[in-house]
Amino acid sequence: MNNQPVVKVENLTKTFNKQEVIKPCNMSVNKNSIYGFLGPNGAGKTTIFKMLIGLLSPTTGRIEVLGMNGNKQREMLRNIGSMIETPVFYEHLPAETNLDIHLSYMGVKDGDISSALEEVGLNHVGNQPVSQFSFGMRQRLGIARAIVHKPKLLVLDEPINGLDPMGIRDMRNLFPSLVNRYDMTILLSSHILNEMEHVADTIGIITNGTIVEEVNLKLIQREHPEGLENYFFNALQKGANT
Ligand SMILES: Nc1ncnc2c1ncn2[C@@H]1O[C@H](COP(=O)(O)OP(=O)(O)OP(=O)(O)O)[C@@H](O)[C@H]1O
């Protein structure tokens, strides 16, 4: 891992209906990092993710992704893969056709749909319509769609939500291998602290619209060998007191 930031956020805010739900935030995600974004319900994780991937515009502040800001938005979007909230598909079309449509939309000609499906354990059902998929299979397909065009930055909002234990274990192996094989940088959110400890190397904590911590996981583990939970609750407490 080197120290070149792939995501750099400065003084980012977002106001909805006169309410500032994201207060001035700074964030830095290093190249080839797996950054685990943690925070209570409603803290602002999804809103920040949406701003990073261009689905929402910031109220104020600056976002730089892969060295680009607003100036090269198309190029930036082609290099981002994401799954935010519940993924939506063309229900009547097979999984592989959904990925094919995504590749066309992204302008990628040489995407490997069968490999992407295999990465998430869906290779045997690629020809089935998505309407026949279970919740966990849809999550897996959402991840396949996020990675099929081999983005440089992968942004996944609660990707293991709804996965079975095998799926969780598969993702634990998949994420670091995407970093190693395709030079990706991954930004993940999850409420499952234990799982974040398995995959992330950096932890960011947001509470009430403010990022209160951004720390290397190894440093946390040195101080909290018992696990992330105490560190997480302390950080929230610290955030509440400032
Ligand atoms: N479109 C919107 N209009 C108004 N308020 C919104 C909108 N989207 C999000 N919010 C508010 O912004 C705050 C942050 O929401 P967000 O979805 O980013 O939280 P989160 O950390 O992802 O939560 P969770 O863990 O529950 O998914 C919440 O108070 C939410 O009600």
UniProtKB/TrEMBL annotation:
InterPro entries: AAA+_ATPase, ABC_transporter-like_ATP-bd, ABC_transporter-like_CS, P-loop_NTPase
Family matches, as PROSITE patterns: ABC_TRANSPORTER_1, ABC_TRANSPORTER_2
Alphabetic keyword roster: ATP-binding, Nucleotide-binding, Transport
Keyword ATP-binding on entry: yes
Domain ABC transporter stretches: 7-233
One Pfam entry name: ABC_tran
GO-annotated molecular function: ATP binding; ATP hydrolysis activity
PANTHER family: ABC TRANSPORTER, ATP-BINDING PROTEIN
Family in the record: Belongs to the ABC transporter superfamily.
Protein name per its UniProtKB record: ATP-binding cassette domain-containing protein
